[in-house]
Amino acid sequence: MERAVLVTKPTAWEELLVRFGTHGQARFWLERAGEDVDAIEAEHERYHTALGAVRRQIPGELRVQVLGRDLLPQYRFDASDVVVVLGPDGLVVNAAKYLAGQPVVAINPDPESIEGVLLPVEIDQASRAIARAVRHDAALRAISMAEAMTSDGQRLLAMNDLYIGARTHVSSRYTLDHGGRSERHSSSGVIVSTGAGSTGWLRSVIAGARGVAVACGGAVPLAPEDVRFAWDAEKLVFAVREPFPSVASGAEVVWGEVTRRAPLRLTSHMAEGGAIFGDGVEADFLPFRRGVSVTVGVSAQKTWLVTP
């Protein structure tokens, strides 16, 4: 390996400076809004202190490329890169879809405020973790990915989940095929979750459906925590959001497991506004217009997380 790519994100304070232009203007607006300016500045200082500490621990023989989150979609990673992500957890998710098997050293910059489920490496462990990744003897944890392939040859990966449907709050119209069953839908779109994402958006879908059913006096055996499954599981789970039953649309095929032998297929009936995006990044999407079909399954590509 010749290069370490250090992936970072702007702090809340840096985003405010972009918006307001000066420290004084940012502080004035925050104080008027009743925000704790000192806490925001302290978080900024902790992140940059961690960034400096990590940079000093990268082996001297490696070239270092610092890469902001906003440049991920345009950046071309080399197969020999070691990728160092300086949290939070969502930054690991953002980076994963643009990789092709490179080891990821994911570091928690601020354990007091970041849970770090996807950030197993502490700052003082960075040097050893990076060195082991360079030597190809690091302990790695595999994370399965979801893959969407459209009928016009486009591909999108997701580490947590895929969304398929309308980009705005209008009905998503499509035909869903899975496990030998086919149904035309008018819904709020479809979520397809990996094991890593099963405690996120998918869990909230279940929690909402369960809450409505319980409030209406129904018996619901499935609790939100029951949908969680292993990060390296060779399956995905799909859920249809708010399907509308009518003479032209159904609400029966709304949940299921997606495997290599049982992929999920959707065909769009939307003239405009249909989209497929991964991990909540709406700006990086595939068009899902009328006549386009998408097949979703477990990707052969995985994210490889370095563990200390």
From TrEMBL:
Gene3D superfamilies for the chain: Probable inorganic polyphosphate/atp-NAD kinase, domain 1, Probable inorganic polyphosphate/atp-NAD kinase, domain 2
Any single biological process term in GO: NAD+ metabolic process
SUPFAM superfamilies: NAD kinase/diacylglycerol kinase-like
Top-level taxonomic group: Bacteria
GO molecular function list: NAD+ kinase activity
Record InterPro entries: ATP-NAD_kinase_N, ATP-NAD_kinase_PpnK-typ_C, NAD/diacylglycerol_kinase_sf
PANTHER family: NAD KINASE 2, MITOCHONDRIAL (PTHR13158:SF5), PTHR13158
Protein name: Sugar kinase
